[in-house]
Amino acid sequence: MHIENLRIFCDLVDSQSFSRAAEKNYISQSAVSQQVAQMEFEFSNKLLDRSTRPFRLTRYGKTFYEAAKQIVEIYDTAVSEIKAAESDPPVLLGTIYSIGIHSVSGFIQKFMKRHPDMKIKIEYLEAKSIYEMISSDMLDIGLVAVPEAGKNYQVYPFISERMVFVCSPSNPLAREKSINVNSIAQQDFIAFEKDVPTRRLIDNIMSNYGVTLEIKHEFTNVEMLKRSIEIDAGVSILPEITVDKEVHTGTLKAIPINSDAFLRPSGIVVKRGKKLSKSAAAFLQLLINQNKQ
Questions:
Q1: 91-159+266-292, which class in CATH?
Q2: Separation CA 280–CA 147 (nearest Å)
């Protein structure tokens, strides 16, 4: 007996009609009757009482129907889950450049090892675009610095990055073991543009110290800031992780700042109430668990 035989019997009982069961399963009415007869032959018992109109289930028919219904439902659920796993879309991840390049690669590698059949599509975007694309369902997950609350999206804490004073090795301050805030204020400063959250964070910290920076250049991208600092066009304050490579190769100097205030928080952004795909939900959980370790 095949799963389709069970399905036809269930459709027959549910519709109380041989013709409707036949139509639903694209077979003839006589084929439905023949299948029922074959089942009754196999069980050596009547499943239907045809002496009444509409027909009624016999005691054996009720037992068989209940079991067949469960089997069909379990089978259909399994098929749906398998198809969903096969067609699960890639995780649509949007991240600001500095977090995407320097902080997320390890998480992506761990995710791919755990879920080799799942995929991630990553886009490097400005924070403003990430919030907009999360709200409009163009992204599943966003990673931003200095996250902001919003009614359309939910924010989970991610990682906090220590920020350091960054200068060229030829800058006189490059020999210092640590830097105070007032010393930074005396330098030509290369900053993020004003609408970048990290810029606003640094401005607020400096304002709390009563210090105003001498802004010489402004950029959106951390890589442009680093290239300008390398030619000694000015100094900056950047997340330490973003300059590890340049410090190692000797093209930049990173010096601790004498303040505990210079920490850049980051956050995971998802649309409030959105049902994520299996892949996106798994990657989100991996990111959230970072703070539990």
A1: alpha beta
A2: 20
